[in-house]
Amino acid sequence: MMMMKKIEDIDEAGDCYNNKNKIIIHWSELCRDMLDLIASHLATPWDYMSFRGVCKSWRSLTPPLSRLPWLLLHDDPPTTRLCHFYSPLEDRVHSFDISEMSGRRFCCGYSKGWLVMFHEGTKKLSLLNPFSGGSIPLPLLPKLYPEDISVGVHRKWRRSPRYIQKVILSKAPTSPDCIIVIIFFCGYLGFCRPGDKTWICLDMDYDGPFEDAVFFKDRLVAVSELGYITEFDIGEQDEDSTTWDDVQSVRRPKDEQISEEQHFILTSPDGSQEEEQEMDNVKFYIVESCGGDLLLAVQLKHDNLSQGGEGIKNTTAEFLLFRLDNNTDHGRQWVRLEGLGDEALFLGKNESRSIIIVADDDSLHGLRKNCIYFTESEHGCFTGNTVDPHWDLDMGVYSLENRSVSDYIISKKPYRIGGGKQVWESPPIWLN
Q: One Pfam match, by short name (predicted)?
């Protein structure tokens, strides 16, 4: 049986030694049990990644960081540089001083480990790795003038984080063949590659503005606000042009809860009540399941006027879930799903993701499978002390098993960012 020696000191070269017996052990040769013990006390991704980066042997003997999500919160008040990250694994909030996220910078999304940052003062957009501090500049936002939006509204929104609805990366932006796709506030699609100076915008007519997109089997799949799916094959880029090939479109799901007049029918879990919902109160998310299927999550919201009719409070009523079946007798069609099995979806401003929940509830502090975790997907706006009446922090957990919405354990306290006449409300964002 091998006896462990007491380690009393570590010299500058990384050699561990015992003064009495003069036994020298280089830190790269520490046994796996000791490394596991040390790693078990590292709570944050920053500490864990630094630990694995000490040497090759430590990196090979310790597993990668868990894919369980963290929830990015923002500091309130905005005068400090603190960012808050909630860890479901520990049921606690970690606060870090990240200068790249301070001041008038807003987080507008998250994809492939990188945050999408917008600077209100310079109007510049960039990608930020919150763990390494690495930053990659993106092209300036283009001037888009949809016919149904006034020039004044466009100019106001272009100076705000509302101009960016979502950003999706095909892979890490450190890769030379990474494609960065942006969905603008008006639903237009654009894309660029790392190092590009301008966005290339999609100038085509499709079934309504786009709401979400995902890279699925080497193609970009986007869903419109009317629930129609379009696949794109982004061609090679040269100095003069870049091609977007619309390879195939899929109509929105046919379901008993979807009427022919572009309404959704909301029903209570016991089937006792029905309520028609306009498409304005419906949001579509598209995500790849852990099993490789393409899923469509349809978020249905209540439409309740507040007292006095002074505002609209849109909160989630339920989710409908569909899987794209490529082999039906009538071609590609959506099939209604009643559950996710061992998976859970995480939806919001982040890239839509599906994760397998393998541990029990006790070890994950209530992180449950067969559920949809969602956060608000829009930025709220405050002018002085006046709250934007069309914005509410819609955040919670939808159980597909009992068809109910519950609050998540994090407080719904708003996080205000910015200064001057307007203060922007930045929603929490899931990171993984």
A: Beta-prop_KIB1-4
CA 22 to CA 20: how far, in whole Å?
A: 6
Give 46's contacts (C-beta < 8 A, 6+ positions apart): 96, 131
Say yes or no to pLDDT of 229 above 80.
yes
Strands (E), 238-330: 242-250, 263-267, 274-278, 282-288, 294-301, 304-305, 312-313, 316-328
Identify the residue with better confidence: 152 or 418.
152
DSSP letter string, 325-340: EEEETTEEEEEEES--
What pTM was estimated for this model as a whole? 0.76
Distance between first and last Cα of the chain: 41
Domain 104-251, CATH among 1.10.10, 1.20.120, 3.30.70, 2.40.128: 2.40.128
How far apart CA 4 and CA 31 sit, in angstroms, is: 10
Residue type, 24: I
Percent of the chain predicted with pLDDT > 90: 17
Which of 120, 72, 129 has its CA nearest to residue 100? 129
